[in-house]
């Protein structure tokens, strides 16, 4: 079954997540359209990570439907599920690189697992991805423990791009990076999207990223996505939390920087 | 997933080749394309590549990488190239593929003296390891003597918690194992001694063997497998998550907080565990003597034990245990603190820790055996 790439890659309808009696999401609706970069914001404990895990398939929601490319996740066969999983790349917060392998071997893991390419070609492809995420070619043979935080993120990104995913999940991609590194990472995502034409869902608190690269911003508040729209519309949205989040001094600074750029 | 077949046509005019790609250039088709494309390109001699992507159905990084093979001639050297009839995305992807700098694959060279140099390295590592362990032991004793002068600074709460963990919780397994060992010795003794008609001497055999050697050694080996590995893993994980660094910065001494409580707990637990192991080992031997072919009643067994196996054997066994306990605690903690950032190092350090502890316990036991033999006890 070929993946119908014209349908929205990711759609959640009527999601309810709860742990015991603690309801995290209630009737949550959310659609990510093809080719856009969506930023997901929400307060600490609002359930951003739970939503991300639910969308990724690491957690089943207590109610509701998750659709990938217009197909209900529950109705997918194992083979179809794997095919769709190969269309999803994830960058975890700390990179989540396998510490016993070099960067190159890390990137080769998905290729080894899901393709039958010659090993030499895999190695070259891994090196190409290393180059694409802006790491030097020497980084290929380094171990994750030899990398700085920013390099780990780039290496993790390279691994998530190994299979040319359609959807890229980024969990706080710029957290822990210095402003220069964070800007460079934002640019990198934009550049890669142009080349590889993927859809991005990023959980972020980096207001600069939101202003600089996100096409739409989804706000997770009161157990559901209150609004998912372009930033100017989100700024006008009338909700105390949204007002406070985007009305603070940090946001204003980022906004003026974003407008200048 | 698009898996329509991919093919290409290369035509040459002068120093220019035009590369017309057809179909789905994705990773599904890449394996077969890779080999024949390489052969075709090697046969040609050219300076300029013109790509025509008008018939390309889908392109991913793998496809782009294969295209870029045509223009890559060596590290950092490329032919000139141009793309006609492609989308912007395809051109950007092509540019990325063309720009990609490949790292050199790790070269594995094994000179003829490789084996020798490895022996040398291993020897060096062994000596460094010895020196570092001694250094650690020295620091440990400095800290513990300082603490003995100010016993209120010892963390008694964690000492007690650790005694429960490494002593109390280990009682069932230590006693069970020792019981089996005692029974096995009794069986072997009964069979062997029956040939001389000296079955009653099996009491001496079980008593001396269990009291002097088996109970202390079994307990020490179990402690090494059970607690020493736990020490290394706990401290190693703390090291990996920078908890040790945090402690140092806050002003806590890692020796005081982590090493000394573990050593004290081991010091208290080991003799008690050994004593219990002695009891259950002798009980195992007694049960076999009574129920087995030897047919020695428990009363006879105990009387014989009292008359012919002196308490000196009990003390010989027990006097070794504090040394074992210290060895185990010190090696476990030292290896834990030697863990570096990677998960792999945690694994190797835990292995090293258990191997070293068991090795050291048996080596020290041998030294004790010689010592006791020389002084005649």
Task: Summarize the structure in words.
The complex is a heterodimer of chains A (261) and B (377). In chain A, 41% of the residues lie in helices and 23% in strands. Chain A has 261 residues and is an alpha/beta fold. In chain A, the strands form two sheets. In chain A, strands 6-7-8-3-9-10 form a six-stranded mixed β-sheet, sandwiched between helices. In chain A, helix 7 packs parallel to helix 10 (249-260). Chain B has helices at 27-43, 61-68, 88-99, 114-149, 156-167, 171-194, 202-240, 243-250, 254-291, 298-308, 311-337, 343-375; strands at residues 6-13, 16-25, 48-59, 72-74, 77-78, 80-84. The mean pLDDT of chain B is 88. Helices cover 70% and strands 11% of the residues of chain B. Chain B has a four-stranded mixed β-sheet. Chain B has two domains: 6-99, STAS domain (Transcription Regulator spoIIAA); 143-375, no CATH class. Chain B is of the alpha/beta class and 377 residues long. In chain B, helix 2 packs across helix 3. The N and C termini of chain B lie far apart (80 Å). Classes of the chains: A alpha/beta (261), B alpha/beta (377).
Offer a few descriptive terms:
heterodimer, A: 261 residues, alpha/beta, 10 helices, 10 strands, 41% helix, globular, B: 377 residues, 2 domains, two-stranded antiparallel ribbon, 12 helices, elongated
Q: What string gives the helices and strands of chain B in order?
A: EEHEHEEEHHHHHHHHHH
- Supply the number of structural domains of chain B: 2
Determine the most extensive contact between two protein chains.
A-B, 38 and 33 residues
Question: Could you say which structural class the secondary elements and strand pairing of chain A correspond to?
Answer: alpha/beta
Oligomeric state of this protein:
heterodimer
Instruction: Classify the beta-strand content of chain A into a percent band.
Output: 15-25%
* Sheet with most strands: strand arrangement of chain A: 6-7-8-3-9-10
**Any idea what the radius of gyration of chain A is?**
19 Å
Number of strands of chain A: 10
Annotation field: number of helices of chain A:
10
Q: Cα-atom Rg of chain B, whole angstroms?
A: 35 Å
């Amino acid at each position: 079954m070929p993946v119908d790439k014209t349908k929205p890659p990711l759609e959640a309808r009527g999601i309810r997540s709860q742990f015991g009696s603690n309801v995290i999401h209630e009737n949550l609706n959310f659609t990510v359209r093809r080719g856009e970069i969506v930023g997901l914001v929400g307060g600490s404990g609002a359930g951003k990570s739970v939503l991300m895990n639910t969308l990724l398939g690491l957690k089943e929601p207590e109610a509701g439907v998750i659709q990938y490319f217009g197909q209900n996740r529950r109705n997918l066969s194992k083979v179809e599920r794997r095919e769709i999983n190969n269309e999803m790349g994830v960058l975890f917060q700390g990179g989540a690189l396998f510490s016993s392998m070099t960067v190159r071997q890390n990137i080769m893991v998905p290729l080894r697992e899901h393709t039958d390419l010659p090993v030499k070609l895999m190695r070259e492809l891994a090196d190409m991805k290393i180059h694409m995420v802006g790491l030097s070619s020497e980084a290929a043979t380094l171990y994750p423990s030899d990398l700085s935080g920013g390099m780990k993120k780039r290496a993790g990104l390279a691994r998530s791009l190994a299979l040319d995913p359609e959807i890229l999940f980024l969990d706080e991609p710029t957290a822990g990076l210095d402003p220069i590194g964070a800007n460079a990472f934002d640019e990198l995502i934009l550049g890669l999207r142009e080349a590889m034409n993927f859809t991005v869902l990023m959980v972020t608190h980096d207001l600069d990223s939101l202003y600089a690269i996100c096409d739409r911003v989804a706000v997770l508040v009161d157990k559901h996505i209150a609004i998912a729209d372009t930033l100017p519309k989100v700024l006008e949205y009338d909700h105390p939390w949204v007002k406070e989040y985007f009305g603070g001094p940090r946001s204003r600074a980022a906004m003026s920087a974003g407008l200048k750029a | 997933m698009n898996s329509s077949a991919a093919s290409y046509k290369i035509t040459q005019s002068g120093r220019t080749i035009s590369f017309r790609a057809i179909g789905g250039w994705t990773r599904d088709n890449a394996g077969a394309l890779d080999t024949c494309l390489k052969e075709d390109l090697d046969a040609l001699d050219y300076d300029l590549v013109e790509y025509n992507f008008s018939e390309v159905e889908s392109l991913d990084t793998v496809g782009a990488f294969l295209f870029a093979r045509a223009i890559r001639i060596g590290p950092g050297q490329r032919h000139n190239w141009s793309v006609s009839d492609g989308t912007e995305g395809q051109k950007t992807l092509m540019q990325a593929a063309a720009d990609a700098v490949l790292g050199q694959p790790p070269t594995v060279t094994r000179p003829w003296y490789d084996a020798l140099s490895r022996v040398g390295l291993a020897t060096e590592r062994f000596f460094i390891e010895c020196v570092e362990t001694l250094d650690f032991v020295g620091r440990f004793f400095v800290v513990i003597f300082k603490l003995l002068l100010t016993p209120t600074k010892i963390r008694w709460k964690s000492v007690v918690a650790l005694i429960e963990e490494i002593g109390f919780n280990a009682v069932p397994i230590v006693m069970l194992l020792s019981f089996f060992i005692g029974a096995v010795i009794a069986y072997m003794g009964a069979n062997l001694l029956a040939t001389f008609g000296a079955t009653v001497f099996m009491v001496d055999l079980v008593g001396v063997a269990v009291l002097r050697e088996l109970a202390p050694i079994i307990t020490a080996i179990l402690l090494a497998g059970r607690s020493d590995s736990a020490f290394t893993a706990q401290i190693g994980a703390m090291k990996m998550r920078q908890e040790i660094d945090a402690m140092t910065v806050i002003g806590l001494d890692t020796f005081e907080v982590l090493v000394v409580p573990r050593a004290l707990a081991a010091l208290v637990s080991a003799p008690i565990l050994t004593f219990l192991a002695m009891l259950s080992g002798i009980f195992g031997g007694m049960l076999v003597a009574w129920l087995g072919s030897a047919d020695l009643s428990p009363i006879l067994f105990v009387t014989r034990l009292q008359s012919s196996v002196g308490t000196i054997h009990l003390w010989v066994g027990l006097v070794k245990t504090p040394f074992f306990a210290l060895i185990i605690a010190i090696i476990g903690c030292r290896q834990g603190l030697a863990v570096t950032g990677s998960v792999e190092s945690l694994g190797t350090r835990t292995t090293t820790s258990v191997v070293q502890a068991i090795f050291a316990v048996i080596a020290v036991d041998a030294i004790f055996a010689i010592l006791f033999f020389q002084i005649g006890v």
